[in-house]
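quick q for whoever's on today - can somebody do inverse folding on this one?? i tried earlier but teh output was garbage lol. tokens:
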């Protein structure tokens, strides 16, 4: 058997970092467009009987990158690849995971159906917006977490008097696990969302006075919620406020809001390329070694469960 890693156009730099850790070259694939915008994929090497991994976060432009991923999978399947595993560091449409009101779709499930129908045999993803999305698939899903990467960075900074802040009740479990590993306190904010990409912070539950507060979330999009949580925590007496968010979507006025906020630092990963959206407050940590280790273990039929922490 042989291992090959391919990439779409969503995050080629991450794919290159992954194959560097694996010690293999990046698979030869052309992912282009016809003049009318249709996706054109050509696999430029033999993949018959090969275990193939496709690295493609479904980040903005989401629909373009979802379609690229599906077409790449189809090209590999028709070229007789032995197994096809998709590595989706950021799972787009993950926020549409339930019917929160009448007559709305569950698009996270639709994407899962499309991936399964395309012929993929396994999915590797990281920090899903909702853990139950794993159940939307009828194929194996390896759900990794950026937590070890964040923990290593925070421990190197030797911060003191830390509290971990969950921006809403839904993030409490993630924040609790993180706080436990840092031997830190836990704080939860009560959030109301009047409409999409807007939030009102009602209460801060827990003690943040004279503490270093680290807001933990799976993603930061427009940064509206993040900035309001930071303000609320700061008003309650936090000494300093940082944030650790696995996926830096950073759409709209996110960079402007972060720069003008009381946040001292926003720590994100390279699951999504920031494409020039730079700020002195933003630190980007790589998850390439984590994803490379998952690929290596899947290929060699070893346990991946040690990475689920």
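ok took a stab at it. sequence:
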């Amino acid at each position: 058997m042989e291992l090959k890693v391919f990439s779409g156009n969503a995050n080629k730099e991450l794919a290159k970092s992954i194959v560097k850790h694996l010690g293999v070259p990046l698979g030869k694939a052309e992912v282009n467009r016809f003049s009318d915008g249709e996706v054109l994929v050509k696999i430029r090497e033999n993949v018959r009987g090969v275990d193939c991994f496709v690295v493609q976060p479904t980040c903005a432009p989401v629909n373009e990158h979802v379609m690229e991923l599906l077409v790449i999978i189809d090209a590999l399947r028709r070229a007789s690849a032995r197994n096809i595993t998709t590595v989706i560091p950021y799972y787009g449409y993950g926020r549409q995971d339930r019917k929160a009101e009448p007559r709305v779709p569950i698009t996270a499930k639709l994407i899962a159906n499309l991936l399964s129908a395309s012929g993929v045999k396994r999915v590797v993803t990281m920090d899903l917006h909702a853990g139950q999305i794993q159940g939307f698939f009828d194929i194996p899903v390896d759900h990794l977490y950026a937590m070890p990467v964040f923990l290593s960075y925070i421990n190197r900074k030797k911060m003191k008097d830390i509290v971990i802040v969950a921006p809403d009740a839904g993030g409490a479990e993630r924040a609790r696990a993180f706080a436990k590993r840092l031997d830190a306190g836990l704080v939860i904010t009560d959030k109301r969302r009047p409409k999409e990409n807007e939030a009102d912070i009602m209460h801060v539950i827990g003690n943040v006075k004279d503490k270093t507060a680290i807001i933990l979330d799976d993603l930061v999009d427009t940064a509206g919620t993040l900035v309001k949580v930071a303000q609320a925590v700061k008003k309650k007496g936090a000494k300093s406020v940082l944030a650790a968010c696995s996926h830096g979507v950073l759409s709209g006025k996110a960079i402007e809001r972060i720069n003008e906020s009381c946040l001292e630092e926003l720590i994100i990963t390279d699951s999504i390329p920031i494409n020039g959206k730079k700020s002195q407050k933003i630190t980007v940590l790589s998850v390439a070694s984590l994803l490379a280790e998952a690929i290596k273990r899947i290929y060699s039929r070893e346990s991946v469960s040690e990475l689920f922490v």
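fwiw Helices lie at 12-22, 62-78, 107-118, 147-157, 172-182, 224-235, 254-260, 288-299. also The longest helix spans residues 62-78. so keep that in mind when u check it
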